[in-house]
């Protein structure tokens, strides 16, 4: 169809415009409006400078990888009493007007003041499992490294199922430096969690079963 009017004239169902007008236009959302909206919705939604970004719903592959990594991290952290690990959906404030929802988020026991009921105000390590869509890839690979570095998050793991690649970035003087780019046969290692590693082949193997 060449336009919405053409679509409606040929029998297409009209969107519920009255519902849409309940919400602010893009660029005009406040932090409280975003928080209220995401309190009441099942969607994964991030917030940047007045605009909301609706994320792709996770696939089975995504969730298999998430479950494996989360259990691995939680066991390591809990056994040593290092802090708290949780998984999405969980809002993390990375700037005064910006919220992200990492797939996995860790906060050290010395920083538990970050942990609030509605959202966390910081983190020490975050993990993103890259979704297949072009926008999601750009967000995880290009945009979020800048966001998380600016927020002072010490470590960022980018888990890319398409490439079977885990990239670990460590914060150094306010910018991320490559700690390692790990492929099957490697052990992806953390600097923040000294002694923690993940077998890359094992991370991606659940998605193949």
* Total helical elements: 6
In the CATH scheme, what's the topology name of the largest domain? tt1808, chain A
Distance between the termini: 41 Å
Helix-strand makeup class: alpha+beta
| Annotated CATH homologous superfamily of the largest domain | tt1808, chain A
Shape from CA axes? globular
The run of helices and strands is HHHEEHEEEEEHEEEEEH
Major β-sheet, in short? 6 strands, mixed
Average pLDDT works out at: 84
Q: For the record, what CATH class of the largest domain applies?
A: Alpha Beta
Strand residue percentage:
25-35%
Strand order of the largest sheet: 3-6-7-8-9-10
Helix content: 25-40%
- In total, how many beta strands? 12
- CATH architecture assignment of the largest domain: Alpha-Beta Complex
Domain count: the total is: 2
How many whole angstroms does the radius of gyration measure? Answer: 19 Å
Spans of at least 5 consecutive residues whose pLDDT stays below 50 are 1-9
């Amino acid at each position: 169809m060449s336009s919405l009017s053409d679509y409606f004239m040929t029998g297409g169902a009209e969107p519920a415009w009255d519902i849409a007008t309940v919400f602010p236009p893009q660029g005009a959302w406040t932090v409280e409006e975003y928080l209220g909206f995401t309190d009441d919705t099942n969607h994964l939604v991030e917030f940047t400078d007045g605009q909301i970004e609706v994320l792709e719903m996770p696939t089975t592959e995504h969730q298999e990888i998430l479950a494996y990594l989360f259990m691995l991290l939680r066991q390591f952290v809990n056994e040593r009493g290092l802090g708290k690990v949780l998984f999405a959906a969980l809002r993390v404030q990375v700037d005064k007007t910006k919220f992200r929802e990492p797939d996995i988020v860790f906060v050290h026991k010395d920083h538990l003041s970050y942990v609030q009921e509605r959202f966390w105000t910081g983190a020490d390590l975050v993990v993103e499992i890259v979704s297949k869509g072009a926008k999601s890839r750009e967000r995880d690979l290009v945009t979020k490294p800048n966001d998380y570095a600016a927020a002072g998050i010490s470590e960022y793991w980018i888990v890319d199922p398409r490439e079977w690649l885990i990239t670990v970035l460590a914060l150094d003087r306010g910018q991320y430096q490559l700690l390692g780019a790990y492929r099957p046969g490697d052990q992806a290692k953390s600097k923040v969690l000294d002694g923690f590693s993940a077998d890359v082949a094992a991370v991606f193997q659940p998605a193949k079963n």
